[in-house]
Amino acid sequence: MPGSGDANVVSFGAIIENTSGAVAHDSVVSIWLVDADGERIDGPVEGASAFDQRLTRLLPGERVGVGATQSVSDEVADLDVEIKPATEWLALDREYWLHQPVVARDVTIVRVPGSTTIEFTVDAAYTSEMVPGGFGTRGDYIAIFRDAAGTLVGGVDCCVPLAASDVVSPGRSRGALALHYGVPERADDSHTEVYVLLG
């Protein structure tokens, strides 16, 4: 399965791509964990999915990762991924700050006794003049783990920006993800990807 872990902890993820020529606004991705009998496992709330991620925008051709690492009560055999379609499909406006690309690069995993952190550089193409207030916008960071062959083996969310804020500043900045459960055993550090989801 596209996840990794033992009977108590599972790491999972998926890649979502906008194959259209328009900007998708306000999609929702839900990931359900499935047991060996094909039954969906309840998430943190009974009857709910294990993970929900709102995608404020997805640019034409853009690919983003979604995923998490969680403690579970049942053994996980598979995933179901559901996508609630965008509420709006808009033409790309290269002057609008929310339609500017934002990417994470220079991803490194730092291990010290008692903690593991993913650190990275964020490049946001919007400028302070474009953004209301000039400060940036809220963002979430999600990491996708792959093995040495490039197969997706897990994911993690929940950002801990280095500036003690969840604002993605215009231009270049630094970000980090603190990993409560560490990196999946099958993951290859050099294949780790980070995606910035603007809120």
Key features of this structure:
single chain, 199 residues, mainly beta, five-stranded antiparallel sheet, four-stranded antiparallel sheet, 0% helix, 53% strand, disordered N terminus
The structure class reads mainly beta
Distance between the amino and carboxyl termini:
29 Å
Characterize the overall form.
globular
Q: Percentage of helical residues?
A: under 10%
Total helices: the number is: 0
Q: Report Rg.
A: 17 Å
In short:
Helix content is 0%, strand content 53%. It is an all-beta fold. Residues 1-6 and 160-165 have low confidence and may be disordered.
Structural commentary:
- It is a single chain.
- The protein has 199 residues and is mainly beta.
- The protein has strands spanning 3-5, 9-17, 23-34, 40-41, 51-58, 63-71, 78-84, 88-90, 102-112, 115-124, 137-146, 152-156, 167-168, 171-179, 193-198.
- Strands 3, 4, 5, 7 and 8 form a five-stranded antiparallel sheet that branches. Strands 11, 12, 13 and 15 form a four-stranded antiparallel sheet that branches. The protein has a three-stranded antiparallel sheet with strand order 1-2-6, with no helix packed on it.
How do the helices and strands line up, and which of them pair or pack?
Layout: E1 3-5, E2 9-17, E3 23-34, E4 40-41, E5 51-58, E6 63-71, E7 78-84, E8 88-90, E9 102-112, E10 115-124, E11 137-146, E12 152-156, E13 167-168, E14 171-179, E15 193-198
Antiparallel strand pairs: 1-2, 2-6, 3-4, 3-5, 3-7, 3-8, 9-10, 10-14, 11-12, 11-13, 11-15
